[in-house]
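>> received
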Amino acid sequence: MKLVLDIEKKIFDLRNKESDELKDAFDKTKLFGIEKYSNSKQVLLKKKQEDLKESEKTRKWIANGGGSGTLDPAIMGGLSAGITGSNVVGVATAYQTEQKNMTAKNQQVAGLMVMSSAIDHKTEEIDKLATELYNFEHDHSDCYIDNSYISEITFDNWKCTLRESGNLTVTGIATLRNDISLLQHDGVIDGSIKISCFVNNKVIAEGYYSAPGFNCFDLSKAGFGSSKGDTISISALCVFKEEIKDIDIDEVSIVVTPIYMWVIKNKGTKNKNKTKKSSTETDEPVQSLKSSRQKSNRYFVKLSNSVKTLHTKNCPVYKNSNSKESFTGFSSIKEVAEFEKENSIMIHRCQRCMYNKK
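>> returned
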């Protein structure tokens, strides 16, 4: 009986742990676009900035005499003379007080020097980190979120393994179907997916997977890849939606649904070695997009705004606007780039756009 209880407790503990693991996997899917790569450094920058403010408060406190314990020699000498009735004692007390104050003043100066040095060091660290973040975000501002990019990836070789807890580990292979380019540079397809396990057309378990690259500025190590044939291995915890007995693992089929998919420019890698495009191809973020997406306007900018931001047609900013006529439409990224060049303006890329497939 005790053995049965021990096994049940172990399974219970494993499932609790895996529940946290599933939540963590889901939370990762909320980080997309530039935020995926820079989030931890943004958090670190904010922490360092707050720490710097506290150090500056401490320096100001020291400069204003905080903690120095300085006293007025004349007052102390007068008090001593008044208490003892002796001017000699009063003068001596005033002298001793002045000596103590000199020591306190020296300590104050030393404290200010230490704090100033620490503040200078912290400021240098903040400047370096802020510059690193700015350069990365500036160099990779071309980031287009569009869930239809998942059509550029083949998912296969799925395998389900039953865990000790009773949940599933689902593994597979993701392979790029085409070379990816963006604005005449190599592009990287990145994103997150939901993995649904079906038996007899019913979802029995679900899990989440995000491609590698979190908090990484080297995009060659991020996402699903850049070149045709690039592959990555997928492994995800899939938790059963309800208690199921006597499941046949071989009967499980896998369906992948995009959560967020995007293409981002891999700065500094021009696609010189990629296959030359035919005259019928367009300069869309992904080279082999469906022809039905090539003619109509897919991108929109409100040029009257001081900060001009590019949105896809299903971005909530554009979709929910009451004045769509105030937006200027573009059919391709090439058209946008040419417009920027001709008018000497910069059109920022919306980091929260998502193309919703219907």
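>> The CA atoms of residues 8 and 165 lie 10 Å apart.
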